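We emphasize that the prediction below concerns an isolated chain of 409 residues; any contacts that depend on oligomerization or on bound cofactors are therefore not represented. The input was used exactly as deposited, without trimming of termini.
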Amino acid sequence: MSSDPWGRVDETGTVYVRTAEGEQVVGSWQAGSPEEALAYFERKYEGLVVEIGLLEKRVKTTDLSAKDAQAAIDHIREQVDAHHVVGDLDALRVRLDKLVELVEARREERKAQRAKQSDEARRSKEALVAEAEELSQSDQWRAAGERLRALVDTWKGLPRLDRKSDDELWHRFSHARSAFSKRRKQHFAQLDAQREEARKTKERLVSEAEALSNSTDWGVTAARYRELMSEWKAAGRAQREHEDDLWNRFRGAQDVFFAARSSVFAERDAEQSENLKLKEELAEEAEKLLPITDLKAARAAFRHVNERWEAIGHVPRDSRPKVEGRMHAVERAIQEAEEAEWRRTNPEARARAEGLTGQLQAAVDKLRGQIEQARAQGNNAKADKLQRELDGRQALLDQALKGLQEFGG
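Result of the prediction step, given as a token string:
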């Protein structure tokens, strides 16, 4: 008879394995020595050990499903319970029990993960639906349309929910897209109708403008052209293929008229050129008032210059902005000086500035006293805190004092 800690072979060749429940028959060995029998069944035991180890590794490191893992555990457990090996079978059962616990934990973990993913997908789809419903009311047709198409792509990339929830959300999502498409079609249909109406209106305006292009009633015709231009702007845009041609005809008719009028007014140009020279001299005289040091004197001098300016008359149209701009610049400078003087002498603003400065000065003085007291008491933490507060108040006081100086205070 031969034996080891986990098994033995009796005189008849029967092989036993020792377990916590007692000895169990492993099998019969007649082909060799008892030692060979034990070695053979111990190798089979080692095979189970390796198999369990591999399964433990797969459960811990791969995405092996709980169902497949449990089937593998059951298969190994059948071999362990069959007692066809020699070794610490109780230890194998303990490892299998722990493995079952691990598989169950992984099952719950994956269940929770799936629930979390489902919840995240639900929230994502609800957010997509909410945005689509908001976009369905937008009139930014191109941007909203592109965004809705992007939302569809995002939707396709999300996991499906339960059928009822997914269908309900998709129905809302699809309805929002349909509502937007319907509104967009209505808008562009209405826009096409408006552009067709604009084309008809502008055809009429062009016809009248062309009929007036040879008129010599300068004042009345020029006024009518201005009215036609207002009507043109109010008509809106026609279709792109018509708009430019209509505008070129409309503008061309006006150009013919105004060119003829300009020719007639050529004699006036000499007078206006002389006026320009006089106004340039006045502008130069006004500019000498800058920079303003005596507001009262500058105001009186500019008034005198302006009276002479008004008496001169028109200047050539293309020169008017420049020469008038020079006078306006001096006028603005005087106005700004007047506003600055008003702000400086405004008693209410000065009183507010003085009141704020006084409050800040009192706060700073109080904080300084509190800091000295805290230092004297040895409370440096409190003193440091008060010092930081003092620094902030002091900065505000400095700004207030600077503002007060603008009032001459």
